[in-house]
Amino acid sequence: MGANKGQKLLLYGSILAYCLITIEIIIMISPFALYFYSVYAPILNFLASSRLTSWSTEFFLPHMVFLDDPVILAISYLQVLLVIGLLLFLAAAVPLYWGRFTGKGVVTFSFYAKIRHPQYLFLAVSGFGLLLYWPRFIVLIFFITMLYIYYILARNEEWRMKHEVPGVYEKYMAGIPMFLPGEPGGKLFALLFGWIKPKWCGILVSYVVVLSLSILAAMGIRSYTIKQLPLVPIEGQVDLLPVFERSPGEIRELYSHVLQSDDVREFLADHQEVNLAYIMPGDFFLTALVTDENRRFSDDIIQRFPEVLEWHEHRFKGGLGKFFRIFYNFIGTLGGIATDYDVERFIFVAVTDKNGDPMPSERLFGLGLERTPALLVDYDRFEEKVVSVIMASGEHKWGKVPMPTF
């Protein structure tokens, strides 16, 4: 009895931890973000503080930089599985609870006529879409863990059903696969790990192997992503990274105009550790991932485009609506730059190791590095002049919590 209770505590504890991590992307854009990060931020910061675990808080896919790469785009489109999986999960709940309320016993119609545990399957599908939308390594770890927990929970439910309706459920199990038609997972497990006895030991070994291979695959995807980043190096100065791909010539021209500001030139001369600059439209909705400074516009821009202020004030309306609006914005911006006015924002950042040493170009997006926003420059392309130079506070909107770097 004690072992069974301990197993349940482990399962429910793991589920709670996974939920805590995966709802980050919803909570962080809601009014409850402050309370959420008061609990979650110490965990991420603790992991980020150690060389051994700092990689787990990093992202393995782009979240802030939009790449026109077929592989990255194909993976990005799969984020829609988050919504599809949730809808299918809700749809699978209808026949299940209908069967329970009407006392029909074992539910064998709708999704349950094809697989025994459609809700766990659809949760896994939704979780995969969520992982691609907010691709921290730690979310990947908990996603793989949750897949195994779903299996254990499903087996536990089957054990209970065999006791509740003996004979009937065994017959149902004999004709209906567990998660997928043909039981590919079960066959692969039997082939690779079936020789390990007892079975729970084989499951544990398979978990370690699958988790390790998943992390290695994510590392490979991260490496591929970094190679696709449209970095424009300026010899002896900084590397420029536009969040939307643009020609290197255009980026260098913009940077040359920014350097016409005496304040910018003097700052960069006095801060040799600044080695990276993000370039984004003035209305870019992910600015807070890099800096805690609000968007600022010149009087001329506000006069020419008065909708700017109202647009920024009312763009999102909190909670889930806010989340899905951002998701919609991502799909909408895949084809180009979502801006209707000519303000370019440069965010200069110092990328250093744990000892404070600046990183060279080839290591700007290495794992476990410190990123400190140093200077913000707004350039008005219409007037061809720098309209604001802002000293950054050294933090982004979420303080010291690790955020996407590309």
Compute the CA-based radius of gyration: 25 Å
Number of domains: 2
* Fraction in helix: 40-55%
> Whole-number average pLDDT?
78
Q: With helices defined by DSSP (H or I, 4 residues minimum), what is the helix count?
A: 15
Which segments are poorly predicted (pLDDT under 50) over 5 or more consecutive residues? 25-36, 314-323, 333-341
Beta-strand content:
5-15%
The largest β sheet comes out as: 6 strands, mixed
Describe this structure in words.
- The protein is of the alpha+beta class and 406 residues long.
- It folds into two domains: 226 residues, no CATH class; 161 residues, no CATH class.
- The protein has a six-stranded mixed β-sheet, covered by helices on one side.
- A hairpin with a 5-residue loop joins strand 1 and strand 2.
- Helix 1 packs across helix 7 and helix 5 packs antiparallel against helix 6.
- It starts with a helix and ends in a 15-residue tail after the last strand.
Give the SSE map:
Elements: H1 2-22, H2 24-27, H3 33-48, H4 70-77, H5 81-101, H6 118-133, H7 137-164, H8 168-175, H9 184-193, H10 199-228, E1 232-233, E2 239-242, H11 248-258, H12 262-270, E3 274-281, H13 299-304, H14 307-314, H15 319-332, E4 343-352, E5 370-380, E6 385-391
Parallel strand pairs: 2-3
Antiparallel strand pairs: 1-2, 3-4, 4-5, 5-6
List keywords for this structure.
single chain, 406 residues, alpha+beta, 2 domains, 6-stranded mixed β-sheet, 6 strands
